[in-house]
C-alpha cells in the first residue's frame, strides 16, 4: 500500500493535466475541479488520499481545506485510509445480484484471498462492494480502476482477476462476446434491411 506522507505534489504530467482541467472552469468556480483532481491524486498516490494530498489540492485550487475534505470523505470512490492500489469494486445492487453478483463476489474472494472491504496482503488490490454502477443492462458488473468488466460469472471473473494479478490488462466491456448492451441472444428489432 502507498505510505502516508507529509507532503505531496503532482508529477509534471499530472500538473499539466490538472491545469488543463482547471482551465475548463470559470475562475470563481475553481472548486468545481475538485472531483477530477481528487481522482488524479488518488491514482498517483497508489489508491488513497492522505491528508497531505488533500491539503495540496486545497492549496492548488485556492479553496479552504474543508471543501476538499468534505468531498473526499463523502464520495465512495475516494479512500482516505490506506488501501490496495488496484480498486476492485463489485456491484451488488438488485439487477447485478439477480444476474449473479454473488458468484462475482465469490470469485473475487477466491482469487484475491481477501474479504469485501479488505486489501490483499501484498497491498496490490482493494476489494469492495459498490452500489449500482449504472450499467445494469450488462449485469453483473465489476469496476476495476477506470474500467468496467460486464456480463460476468464465476469463471469469467476468475479469469479476469487472475490476468490482473499477472499484471495484464484484459479488454474492458462485456465479457460475453456481445457488443455493448445489445440483446445477449442477438438483435431482436430492426431486422429488416428495407431493401
Ligand atoms: S445494479 Fe449493477 S450496474 Fe446497476
Outline:
With 195 residues, this protein is an alpha/beta fold. Helix content is 37%, strand content 12%. A six-stranded mixed β-sheet has the order 2-3-1-4-5-6, with helices on one face.
Describe this structure in words.
By secondary structure, the protein is α/β, with parallel strands linked by helices. It folds into 2 domains: 12-74, Arc Repressor Mutant, subunit A; 86-174, Glutaredoxin. The protein is 37% helix and 12% strand. The protein has helices spanning 12-22, 34-44, 51-61, 65-74, 94-98, 101-112, 154-165, and strands at 86-91, 118-119, 125-130, 142-144, 147-150, 173-174. It has a 6-stranded mixed β-sheet with strand order 2-3-1-4-5-6, with helices on one face. Strand 2 and strand 3 form a beta hairpin. The structure holds FE2/S2 (inorganic) cluster. FE2/S2 (inorganic) cluster (FES) binds at residues 91, 93, 95-96, 132-136, 139, 141. FE2/S2 (inorganic) cluster binds at residues 91, 93, 95-96, 132-136, 139, 141. Pfam families: 2Fe-2S_thioredx. It catalyses: a quinone + NADH + 5 H(+)(in) = a quinol + NAD(+) + 4 H(+)(out). It comes from Marinimicrococcus flavescens. [2Fe-2S] cluster binds at residues 91, 96, 132, 136.
Amino acid at each position: 500500500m502507498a505510505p502516508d506522507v507529509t507532503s505531496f505534489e503532482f508529477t509534471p504530467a499530472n500538473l499539466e493535466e490538472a491545469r488543463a482541467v482547471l482551465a475548463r472552469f470559470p475562475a470563481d468556480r475553481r472548486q468545481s475541479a475538485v472531483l477530477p483532481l481528487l481522482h488524479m491524486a488518488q491514482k498517483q498516490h497508489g489508491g488513497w488520499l492522505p491528508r497531505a494530498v488533500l491539503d495540496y489540492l486545497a492549496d492548488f485550487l485556492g479553496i479552504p481545506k474543508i471543501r476538499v475534505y468534505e468531498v473526499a470523505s463523502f464520495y465512495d470512490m475516494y479512500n482516505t485510509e490506506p488501501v490496495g492500489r488496484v480498486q476492485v469494486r463489485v456491484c451488488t445492487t438488485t439487477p447485478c445480484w439477480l444476474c449473479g453478483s454473488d458468484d462475482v463476489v465469490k470469485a473475487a474472494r477466491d482469487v484475491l484471498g481477501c474479504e469485501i472491504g479488505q486489501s490483499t496482503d501484498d497491498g496490490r488490490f482493494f476489494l469492495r462492494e459498490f452500489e449500482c454502477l449504472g450499467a445494469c443492462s450488462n449485469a453483473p458488473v465489476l469496476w476495476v480502476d477506470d474500467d468496467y468488466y460486464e456480463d460476468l460469472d464465476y469463471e469469467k471473473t476468475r479469469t479476469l482477476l487472475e490476468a490482473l494479478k499477472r499484471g495484464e490488462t484484459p479488454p474492458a466491456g462485456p465479457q460475453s462476446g456481445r457488443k455493448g448492451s445489445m440483446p445477449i441472444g442477438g438483435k431482436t428489432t430492426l431486422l429488416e434491411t428495407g431493401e
